[in-house]
Amino acid sequence: MEAEETEERTLAFRPCEREGCGGVEEAAAAEEADMVNSPYCPEYAPFFGFLGAALALVFGNMGAAYGTWKSALGLSTIAKLPRHKVQTEMVMKSIMPVILSGVCGIFGLIIAVIISSNMRGPIATKTTYAIYTGYAHLGAGLTVGLSNLASGLAIGMSGDCGVEDSCRQPKLYIGMVLIWSFGSALGLYGLIVGLIIATKDGNDLCELVPA
Which domain of life is it from (predicted)? Predict the structure, then answer.
C-alpha cells in the first residue's frame, strides 16, 4: 500500500508521465492546422504591389524618354541658325527641358523603391501581405507613373517648340521656363499623392483564422 501511494504522489508531481506531454503538443499542432490564412491576405496580393512598382517606373521613364526626345529635337534647331548667332549661353539654356524631363524618371524610381521596400513575403504557410496594401501600392504606382507620363508629354511638346522659338526671339525664354516648370509640377503632384497612398497599410489583417 505504501509503495502504491508513493507512486501516485510521484505521478501527481509529474503529469507528463501520467497523461503524456506528447498529447498536448499534438493537440496544439492540430489546432494550428485547423487555422487558415485570412481572406483579406490572399496569396496573390503581392502581385498588385509589384505591379504598382513596375508601372510607376515604366510610365515615369516613358515620360522622361519622350520629353528628352522632343526637347532634343528642339535643341537641334540651333544648328540651323547662322554661326555668328549661336552662343554657348543659348545652348545651355535650351537644355532646361531635357533636365526637367529626366526628373520624371526619378519620381517613378522613388515610388518604386518605396513600394518594393514595403513588400512582405510569406512566413512558412502564413501570408503577411494584405490585399488592401496591394491595392494601395498599385494605386500609388499608377498615380505617380501616369502623372509623370503626362508631365513628360507636356515638357517634350512645349520644349520642342519653345527652344526653337526662344532661340529666334530670346524674350520668350522666361515664358518658356514657366511653362516647363508647370509641366514638371504635374509629376511632383503625382509623387506627393502617391507617397500618401503608399503609406496605407492593412497588413495587420493577416492573422490566421479558424477554417
Answer: Eukaryota
Nearest to 155 by CA among 80, 111, 194, 102: 102
- Provide the domain count of the chain: 2
Q: What range defines the domain where residue 6 resides?
A: 2-33
> How buried is residue 51: exposed, middle or buried, by Cβ count under 10 Å (0-12/13-18/19+)?
middle
Residuewise pLDDT in 10s, the chain (211 residues): 555 555 555 545 555 554 455 555 554 444 455 566 677 788 888 999 999 999 999 999 999 999 999 988 888 777 666 665 666 677 777 888 999 999 999 999 999 999 999 888 777 777 788 889 999 999 999 999 999 999 999 999 988 888 878 777 878 888 888 999 999 999 999 999 999 999 988 767 777 666 6
Q: Please check whether residue 71 is in contact with residue 161, taking contact to mean a CB–CB distance below 8 angstroms.
A: no
| Same domain? 21 vs 44 | no
Distance CA 46, CA 103 (A): 28
Question: For helices 173-198 and 96-117, what crossing angle results, to 10°?
Answer: 0
* 28 shares its domain with 61: no
Q: Compute the distance between CA of residue 73 and CA of residue 136 in angstroms, rounded to an integer.
A: 38
3-state secondary structure of 102: helix
CA 108 – CA 67 distance, rounded (Å):
15
Quote the cell numbers at residue 147.
502623372
State how far the Cα of 151 lies from the Cα of 100, in Å rounded to an integer: 9
- pTM above the 0.70 mark? yes
